[in-house]
């Protein structure tokens, strides 16, 4: 389950127990409602220390923020904070932030081993879409995909619809939409998955994998009609459909 973080500062010498006894439960809960989200506190604290109008100021902000962001627990929150930092620095490509990372921190991160996952059809499609939500615009249609019954296809369809409904979504924003959802941990893992696909081949791999998924839908329907023909026979419409499927699949051989 995803966790959100907020900061609530208590008076000196007080802890939650003593403050509840002194102020009462309702007053303490009101304090909690006013707690600052971690992202707000982080940048509200750092921004007064830098001048973003100068290159040196922007470099200083990255030097101050990146080591702190790296220590934040939760992949979703780290991605969100990095994207917030990128927006303040005018850097849209999240990967460019790594070039601003202090050398010591860069060395520490180089020891990080991303999750090793088996490459499956749905894992490739969902993983690439999470990492590049703009790929949703390349999908011609998702009609009929639910018929495959493959594990993950319903999540993929949902993600495509979400990305299409909100063009321009970033990875962090997409993960934030699923915070606390039953898929949140799975999506966080895929967001950092090293799929070993070179940069120039990502879009082609995504579309090729999607094409194979479409083919599996056609093959599944073809098998259903052939089985029905053997047991109950087909109507004229079903025979036309089977003929069309045979022709379509024959062209792919």
TrEMBL record:
Membrane-crossing segments per the record: none
Cellular component aspect of the GO annotation: cytoplasm; primosome complex
One BP term from GO: DNA replication, synthesis of primer
MF annotations from Gene Ontology: nucleotidyltransferase activity
Record's keyword terms, sorted: Nucleotidyltransferase, Primosome, Transferase
InterPro entries listed in its UniProt record: DNA_helicase_N/primase_C, DNA_primase_DnaB-bd, DNA_primase_DnaG_DnaB-bd_dom, DnaG_primase
EC number assigned by the record: 2.7.7.-
Domain DNA primase DnaG DnaB-binding: 121-246
Gene3D superfamilies reported in the protein's UniProt record: DNAb Helicase, Chain A, DnaG, RNA polymerase domain, helical bundle
Protein name, entry field: DNA primase
Gene that encodes the chain: dnaG_1
